[in-house]
Amino acid sequence: MTRVQVVEVSARDGLQNDPAFLTTEQKVELIKRTVDAGIDRAEVASFANPKAVPQMADAEGVLEGLGVIDGFSSIGLVLNTRGFHRAATTNVKEVNVVVVSTDTFSQRNQRMDSLGTLAVLEEVIPLAREAGIKATVTLAASFGCPFEGEVSIDRTVMLAEKAAEYGVAEIALADTIGVAVPADVKRRFEAVKAVSGDIPLRAHFHNTRNTGYANALAAVEAGVFILDASLAGIGGCPFAPKATGNIATEDLVYALHRSGIETGLDLDKLLEASEWFAQILDRKTPSLVSKAGVFPPAELLV
Ligand code: ZN
């Protein structure tokens, strides 16, 4: 049976651009609730400049509050070497380095060009190895850039090939602004597979144009078995105009389970966590299974 690992990103991608400022304790509770539903990997913090991304200023505090949980891998986002050194002072298990596919977006996001972010990855990988921290990469704006438009498959393949050469532990293609469609997802991942060897691939989708879930299923068909998702479907990038939520964890899990794909996650617990989260955020969230309910409904199963 096909099995997919869902990486929970609500505490990082979900909250980094959210008008609601959660307290460190609330973030820790959010992560623990998803862990209780079976999540074994989650982006819990970003070691970005706190002035640029104030929602993530308590990165160290979140990791401290979380502590070390058996069988759970915490991930910290890293945008530059300075961020890595901050991460290395915590108990974080993984650092995820962001390499942006285009120069204009890269300058806005990380104040360096695309190859500059690739150089950060090259520098961070041996440092992480020495510190006993797993280093992964997310190729941001792989499917399109808000400032430069189309991103060629050759560009994505070149960045993935370099990351593989540096010894990265996992390569993710991220549709940061939610422009991907299933055919491109398949083509692009197949092209990356040709250069990535045994390195696991991960996919990251936003549902900005309602193609996020179709893209996630297309990625699985293309042999990608690690998917990012955000509880309740919240999220967005502070440096990308009109960026909206990630695909929702509970909606993704519903689609996967009913497609016969295992995740090891407890959908009922995810729905409870999503309801709690919506109360904390004090608004309606984008996920739909949390509103419509599961199918078949529990009362028909007795
Ligand atoms: Zn994202």
UniProtKB/TrEMBL annotation:
User: Family, per the entry?
Assistant: Belongs to the HMG-CoA lyase family.
Q: Does the keyword Lyase apply?
A: yes
Spell out the SUPFAM superfamilies in the cross-references: Aldolase (SSF51569)
Q: Which UniProt keywords apply?
A: Lyase, Metal-binding
Q: Which GO terms describe its biological process?
A: ketone body biosynthetic process; L-leucine catabolic process
For this protein, the record's InterPro entries field holds: Aldolase_TIM (IPR013785), HMGL (IPR043594), PYR_CT (IPR000891)
Keyword Iron: yes or no?
Answer: no
- Boundaries of each Pyruvate carboxyltransferase domain copy? 4-271
A single Gene Ontology molecular function, please?
Answer: hydroxymethylglutaryl-CoA lyase activity
> What is the protein named?
Unannotated protein
